Amino acid sequence: MQVHLPQDLCRAVKESGLPASELRQAAVRREVRRRRILAATDEYLSNLIAEVGEPSVEDEAWAEDLVDRIVRQAGAAMGCACSCLIPGQSPVWPGRPHEPRR
Question: CB atoms < 10 A from the CB of 91, how many?
């Protein structure tokens, strides 16, 4: 199997002296693992919904509120007033602005 890298990425790997083969293997392993986890999550949720039914509107609102509180607490611990958990990354919920603490 051959893997193509764009010229800019290939140049960056060569200039930095990184082991390209090991990096590609690690990236492929991570992606395969990520997709397996997503598939297992989908299967789990399907089984759970079959067992207990779809969540109600109230259940979803409760869960969203819980996640928002957890994210705000984690952000506050990192010195951030928005809903992001990783500095420099997109907000957890698309459409919400990133508001760093001042």
Answer: 16
Contact between 83 and 91 under an 8 Å Cβ cutoff? The reply is yes
Kindly state the percentage of the chain with pLDDT values over 70. Answer: 77
Q: Note the pLDDT tens digit of each residue in 12-40.
A: 999 999 998 899 999 999 999 999 999 99
Give CA–CA dist 87/40, Å, rounded: 29
CA distances from 22 to 1, 25, 81 (A): 15, 5, 38
| pTM, two decimal places | 0.58
d(CA 1, CA 24): 12
Radius of gyration from C-alpha coordinates of the chain: 20
The candidate with the shortest Cα–Cα distance to 82, out of 97, 63, 102, 65, is 97
